[in-house]
Amino acid sequence: MIPTMLPTGIAPPLIFIIGALLIPFLKGRLKSAVMLSIPVLTFIILVHIPEGKHWVFSILDYDLILGRVDRLSRIFGYIFTIIAFISIIFALKVDDNVQHVSGLIYAGATLGVTLAGDFFSLYIFWEIMAVASTFLILARKTEKSHTAAFRYILVHLFGGLLLLAGIILYYQQCGTLEFDYIGLEGIASYLIFAGIALNAAIPPLHPWLKDAYPEATVTGAVFLSAFTTKSAVYVMARTFPGAELLIYLGAMMTALPIFYAVLENDIRRVLSYSLMNQVGFMMCGIGIGTQLAINGTVSHAFCHILYKALLFMAAGSVLHMTGKIRCTDLGGLYKTMPLTCIFCMVGSASISAFPFFSGFISKSMIVSAAAHDKLTLIWLILQFASAGVVDHAGIKVPYFMFFGHDSGIRTKEPPLNMLIAMGITACFCIFIGIFPKPLYNILPFPVDYVPYTTAHVVGQLQLLMFGALAFCLLILSGNYPSEIRAINLDTDWFYRKGSRLIYVLADQGLNGINRICDNLFARNLSGLLGRFSRKASTMMMLGFLAPVKFFTRDHKFSPSHMEKHLEAIFESGTVPLGFSVALAAIFLTGVMIVLY
Amino acid sequence: MKKELTIFDKPKNVKKLLFVFYAALAALLIADFFIPKHADFPWEAQTNFFAVYGFISYVGLIYVSKLLRPFLKKKENYYEDN
Lengths: 596, 82
Hints:
Chain A has helices at residues 12-22, 28-48, 71-90, 97-115, 119-138, 143-174, 187-199, 207-212, 220-239, 244-263, 267-288, 291-322, 338-351, 358-372, 376-402, 416-434, 437-441, 454-476, 493-496, 498-551, 559-571, 577-595, and strands at residues 52-59, 62-69, 487-488. By secondary structure, chain A is mostly helical. Strand 3 (487-488) of chain A pairs antiparallel with strand 1 (73-74) of chain B, so a sheet runs across the interface.
């Protein structure tokens, strides 16, 4: 182990965060140059740093390990840095420093999570990620994005609390904050699992994704699509590989969102559901846990980050140039945005796992791993989901944006920086698809999987093309569900409508109690006390003077007369000296009796 | 202003595209008889298994989604406070 801070440079997350803090002081070309150099610098460090524990800071009794480097964290570090670079190019012309700063901090915190060797650092970067990403949603500055950002941060704080609870129990059990493999055993691990699962958007903890990502800014969504879910995939792959529960959750996760994706109108919401579907494959792979499965998961994460970003960039470009993002409002854009159209189709082909595109060489490893382990039902579900992807991402997204019925919108290609970002990503998708070796070489385990066998190519092409045939026949026969302006209910109904119920209960219940207490104590009881304290002295004197009444028949000493007289002298404070002395003497006698 | 493309507006082009598509489908079906298979599951070796499974999955997906739509569909302002 090399616990050192010497020639290994600064920890990558800190490079990003310090760089981010410089941004508000820079302008123009210098600002762009600094922003672009941050991921480049980080990438160089990641390439050269040897395996082991680096950037270890000792605070009190704890060792914060900011750089746990092995094959698993290194490859995730690479892809996060690459996509940060691409996203920065895409967002280069955005005139909003809040977005730039939060994007960079978000990316940096993700690297922090990836390279963290102990739970304390992990947790800190986890929360920084949540806060920074919220700003990317807030920056859209619409009413909807405001409320969506609010829900987003609440949900993520909840997830963070689950994780924190798990970490605390873990520390109690194990006496150390360092973590590697944990395994699902005991409440601590289940809590940690739940916290990670929320960030990975495993149903039913998923609605935040489809709620918030479509409301983010054009460029913010590209950042968002890459980091939160995939860093959760990394942490899950490190702590719970082979957990059987994940196989079932993952398979369910590939199948459920695609039904929603068919029905959704907002293109970025379709992409959000698509994101869940793909992460489902990764979760399933982690659950299977064999070397082939983990390789599949990691390579799939690598490729997915790229093609999902490409799709969000294409959708974002359309939104940026036309102001519209709903299927019902778009169509026919291939005429005026041919490059964006082609880039979108590259993304669609990649996500569908078309031969010679990146998905083909990565997702198939997970499916193959399921087959090797004879997980029949799981394999069938994964193949079903693979065919389903063809519908919403392979066909629907490009078809309704760029083809379909002509919406009459005539616009231009997005600015050059956006085209360049999309172009770079598209090249990556195609290059990895044709030459998977470089990617296979950096996977955690040695790869002897061969993607390009005739059987695999023909089989996959059949799955995709006959799915496309189904689309053609459904459209031509009028049976394809039409795009309509509507939203669909998901499990967030429970905390969105459900929370209204809690509000009403709190209002009636707690405010009701408040009203009762107000009446009882504030009004009646204190009034009672007030009247009592006013009359107390009068009553006491009356009591003592009562014997006097016995001995005189003068009407001056009748009770009512006395009462009025006493009240008058007590209220005006003109009590004759004798009375006060008498009262004091009696009081003191009483005290002496009590004490002795 | 760049000249806009109108390739797919012409029905001739769309017909050509569909012809290529159907030809590719036929080629895939035929090719399936000639390729060596190393199947993990017995039914994978079945001829044209993926063509059938892909088609059925797709149709099934669409029909179940259509079935779910009336239960899930709400107006766009469903969650907005009145």
